[in-house]
């Protein structure tokens, strides 16, 4: 097992409390910023209220400072022993295809995962439909990609 | 001479809530990252949680199984944090008027898209952009542009809310 997939029993006792504290701030921020309301996101996408630019701006700025501090000045994280790294994902056409599909979904619903959880917290129970849709979508892509990779493997074996 | 657009037209609800709310979102991410070196995204929760109920190897990779418990805690605390806000600011009980098919169908596409595209508004948008990661910047520009076009098409078709 890799260092980045540490089993439960080795976890620092403050790990989950810190995640909970971070999640509370995260959810409070999503509520205060009004991003937990699909209508506010749709107003932004329809150029009726550009406030969401400030949410994405200050959010990534504050997180960016933490990433810069961690990567440049700290050795390893106190609760996991992991070394600090920027969030880098490899680029391939899935990044573009996924961005397009997510964009269509976001434009239709005004809802993204974090904001959907927060929306439930402000009592917006119809958002359960969106969360159910997200689970169905995540499940469907898992089935489809498994099927596709099995077919690719079969095709590779059968090719002369 | 009148300006072409006024501040009030661009930001009819002001900016402080957006700016402060965004900073708190960033602060939550920053706290988790500085303590654990984990860039916390919100959408991995779907795959990691599906590992409880599905035998599909795709959902049972080590990184999902190892993180599924704390991801449940993270998600529940996002719900709780928003509830604290809503009660504190007298905003609790607000419900959306967006149609059911937009929530369900749009949610489905969000579920597909964030998983294929390796992240969402928090993973790519907050953590990835904060990391000045080229992959995330491309993904964010893509979903932002496509979402704007989609929402404007729906609006022009008279779909509201």
UniProtKB/TrEMBL annotation, chain A:
Keyword Cell wall biogenesis/degradation carried by entry: no
Transmembrane segments: 12-32, 52-74, 95-116, 122-140
Name of this protein: YeeE/YedE family protein
InterPro entries for the chain: DUF6691
Natural source organism: Halorussus limi
Sorted UniProt keywords: Membrane, Transmembrane, Transmembrane helix
UniProtKB/TrEMBL annotation, chain B:
Transferase listed as a keyword: no
Name used for this protein in its record: YeeE/YedE family protein
Annotated Gene Ontology cellular component terms: plasma membrane
Taxonomic superkingdom: Archaea
Membrane-topology descriptor: Multi-pass membrane protein
Coiled-coil stretches noted in the UniProt entry, renumbered to this chain: none
KW Transport (keyword) present: yes
Keyword terms: Cell inner membrane, Cell membrane, Membrane, Transmembrane, Transmembrane helix, Transport
Signal peptide residues on this chain, from the entry's feature table: none
Principal cellular location given in the protein's record: membrane
InterPro entries membership: Sulf_transp_TsuA/YedE
Transmembrane stretches, start-end: 15-34, 70-88, 100-117, 129-154
Compartment annotation: Cell inner membrane
Species: Halorussus limi
């Amino acid at each position: 097992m890799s260092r980045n997939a540490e089993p439960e029993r080795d976890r620092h006792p403050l790990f989950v409390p810190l995640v909970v504290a971070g999640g509370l701030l995260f959810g409070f921020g999503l509520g205060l910023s009004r991003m937990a309301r699909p209508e506010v996101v749709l107003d932004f996408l329809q150029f009726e209220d550009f406030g969401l630019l400030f949410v994405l701006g200050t959010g990534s700025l504050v997180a960016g400072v933490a990433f810069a501090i961690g990567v440049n000045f700290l050795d390893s994280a106190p609760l996991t022993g992991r070394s600090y790294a920027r969030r880098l994902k490899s680029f391939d056409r899935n990044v573009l295809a996924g961005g397009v599909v997510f964009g269509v979904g976001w434009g239709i619903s005004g809802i993204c995962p974090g904001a959907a959880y927060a929306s439930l917290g402000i009592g917006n129970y119809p958002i359960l439909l969106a969360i159910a849709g997200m689970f169905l979508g995540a499940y469907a892509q898992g089935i489809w990609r498994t099927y596709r990779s099995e077919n690719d493997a079969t095709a590779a074996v059968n090719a002369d | 001479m009148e300006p072409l657009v006024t501040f009030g037209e661009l930001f009819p609800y002001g900016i402080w809530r957006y700016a402060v709310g965004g900073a708190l979102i960033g602060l939550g991410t920053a706290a988790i990252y500085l303590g654990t070196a984990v860039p916390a995204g919100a959408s991995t929760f779907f795959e990691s949680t599906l590992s409880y109920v599905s035998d599909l190897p795709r959902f049972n990779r080590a990184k999902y199984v190892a993180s599924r418990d704390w991801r449940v805690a993270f998600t529940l605390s996002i719900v709780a944090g928003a509830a604290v806000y809503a009660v504190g600011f007298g905003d609790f009980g607000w419900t959306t008027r967006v149609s059911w098919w937009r929530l369900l169908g749009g949610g489905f596409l969000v579920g597909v898209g964030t998983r294929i595209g390796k992240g969402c508004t928090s993973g790519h948008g907050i953590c990835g952009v904060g990391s000045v990661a080229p992959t995330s910047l491309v993904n964010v520009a893509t979903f932002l542009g496509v979402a704007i076009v989609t929402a404007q098409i729906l609006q022009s078709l008279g779909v509201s809310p």
